[in-house]
Amino acid sequence: MRRSVILTALCVLAGRSAFAQDRHYLAPARDTATLPFSGAVQVGGTLYISGTLGLLPGRKVPDTPTAEARLVLDNVKKTLADAGMTMDDLVSVQVFCSDLSTYAEFNNVYRTYFTKEYPPRAFIGVAHLLFDARFEVQAVAVKR
Questions:
Q1: pLDDT for 137 beyond 90
Q2: Cα–Cα distance, 102 to 94 (Å, whole number)
Q3: For position 61, what pLDDT does the model report?
Q4: What one-character-per-residue DSSP string does 42-107 give?
Q5: Which of 9, 23, 69, 80 might form a disulfide with 109, Cβ 3.0–4.6 angstroms?
Q6: Nearest by Cα to 77 from 92, 64, 88, 65
Q7: Structural domain for 41, as ranges
Q8: Cβ contact 102:65 at 8 Å
Q9: DSSP 8-class letter at 34
């Protein structure tokens, strides 16, 4: 009886430590440092990346969808690098797009950011994005 109580207690403690992992927060990009959210949070080997825009300094939207796609994906890539990860560690991506006619242009840029399998992805049409951006990317990565 005593042995089963000890084993049960050890299992409960082991379970708690598995769920009580440390969190590491990454600051958002410099232009958004005063906003009430984190750029990303890492829990164990998983990184949750906030919605990310591809804006020029002064929150200006680039002239072309291609340039904006590069900027937004560069921002995601930098967040991943800050956490010791790469684009190939992404396991889920959501792209919010205010102009669905730019789908092919986004894809032409997107495919150049990966050297392994593409992660599952949703490309979601929306009426508007902050600062009149065309794209916002939110993602989850798990360290390989």
A1: yes
A2: 15
A3: 98
A4: EETTEEEEEEEE--BTTTBPPSSHHHHHHHHHHHHHHHHHHTT--GGGEEEEEEEES-GGGHHHHH
A5: 69
A6: 88
A7: 22-142
A8: yes
A9: T
72 domain residue, yes or no: yes
- Using CA atoms, how far apart are residues 20 and 110, in angstroms rounded to an integer? 35
pLDDT > 70? residue 9: no
Number of domains in the chain: 1
Average pLDDT score, the chain: 88
Which comes out higher in pLDDT, residue 11 or 81? 81
Task: Give the total residue count for the chain.
Answer: 144
Determine which helix (DSSP H) or strand (DSSP E) holds 5, and give its type and residue range: helix 2-19
Higher pLDDT pick, 17 / 56: 56
Residue 139 class from Cβ within 10 Å (0-12 exposed, 13-18 middle, 19+ buried)?
Answer: buried
Q: Is residue 62 part of a domain?
A: yes
